[in-house]
Amino acid sequence: PPGRKVLIVYAHQEPKSLNGSLKRVAVEELSKQGCSVTVSDLYAMQFEPRATRNDIVGCLHNSEEFNYAVETWEAYKRGGLSSDVSEEQRKVQEADLLIFQFPLYWFSMPAIMKGWMDRVLVQGFAHEFPNCYDSGLLKNKLSLFSFTTGGSEEMYAKGGISGDIRYLLWPMQHGIMHFCGVKVLAPHICFAPEYVSEEKRKEMLNAWAQRLKTIWKEEPINCSPEWYFK
Amino acid sequence: PPGRKVLIVYAHQEPKSLNGSLKRVAVEELSKQGCSVTVSDLYAMQFEPRATRNDIVGCLHNSEEFNYAVETWEAYKRGGLSSDVSEEQRKVQEADLLIFQFPLYWFSMPAIMKGWMDRVLVQGFAHEFPNCYDSGLLKNKLSLFSFTTGGSEEMYAKGGISGDIRYLLWPMQHGIMHFCGVKVLAPHICFAPEYVSEEKRKEMLNAWAQRLKTIWKEEPINCSPEWYFK
Can you supply one Gene Ontology CC term for this chain's record (chains A, B) (predicted)? Predict the structure, then answer.
């Protein structure tokens, strides 16, 4: 609906890929609804995935023994995180919905997106003990993991060789988003797009556009072990 | 035993950290046994985690639409992967045992190590359909994930707020190592070292050294859903 803000964190090297098209479809559909949509195109930005001392501007809290979690927490509090990180935090802060669009790499997100999680969701900003899980600092936001796979739906079935696809969603949805208090909408999965017809790929794009039409009416999943491991 | 080769892939920014000490202890103990030990110190190497066109030397197989998996597969076959990737592949090829030493970041490995997986374990080298899982191309090798956590053992218990620690091992152990045919030894986990005494941290280092004394007698875990989700 008008006024809602969406951040799409997107990790694919090729605009012509299905991931590129899924991202474009989301921008179009959500904009049409009157949402304000921001895209972090990680490869185009050459986003830095490594968590290093460079993320802290100025002096360290303890330069004798570098502790990334402590240093970024301290730096956040005094406004001393590097500008690429604080810019992403500003986008997250403004967003009502975070969409992560990527190809599944090794049962997880590509390293460039994992680096976005590692560097952006620092203590003080996204969580601050005991404010984690249901009381995480990013509560009242929604998230959605939208991704493509190499393996087929059969391989990712319960009893399939790669196991239920939900098993691999646990670290991303529960370990990251839920930990920060962000509610999780059902994932959107396009299985093995490289092995289907052009027509089937168009159906995949249509299905995503259709889902987005009613996305604001969806209820989050119950992000607990039962959902993942029944 | 003499002659065995070990590759330690290590991801911590600070040599004085517990991860740094765990790495050092492993180098010392395994060298003492007569093993030949190689360390890939990812932060010190400023290892590139991003999967990009730069990983392919020379012309692309299809420059109209960049597909990382296809391009790296083709490049591998003609010896055209970038030198940092092929150097890591050489180390993997020679190793009998791969040890991954890292602090847990967001229920997974730090992005710099995920990038090592994304870029080094390319098709043709580590797997090549249908040679995956038990027939993966890196069979006859062992792997071991050794890591520290922020959360306590209670948080990572079954029924704990963060769920059984085994849940988050699925993508790393099954989705990556098992997929490539690598057998998986039981993980080595140091829970919440930042919240225990210096003496307890010394015990953690000792326990690791002790375990390594008989590491070559260990049997791999049964890397199937039952181990993870019972």
Answer: cytosol
Domains by residue range for chain A, with CATH = 5-229 (3.40.50.360)
Kindly state the helix (H) or strand (E) to which residue A5 belongs, with its residue range. strand A5-10
**Cβ partners under 8 Å of residue A118, min gap 6:** A49, A51, B105, B106, B110, B111
Distance, C-alpha B189 to centroid of its chain: 14
**Does the pTM of the predicted model rise above 0.95?**
yes
Distance from chain centroid for Cα A156? 21
In the DSSP assignment, the letter for residue B98 is: E
CB contact under 8 A, A65 and B14: yes
Global ipTM: 0.98
For residue B168, list chain A residues with Cβ-Cβ distance below 8 A. 170-171, 175
**Torsion angles phi and psi, residue B131, rounded to 5:** -85, 80
**Distance in angstroms (rounded) separating the CA atoms of residues A195 and A31:** 31
**B65: chain A residues, CB-CB within 8 Å:** 14, 16-17
Tens-digit pLDDT profile for residues A163-219: 999 999 999 999 999 999 999 999 999 999 999 999 999 999 999 999 999 999 999
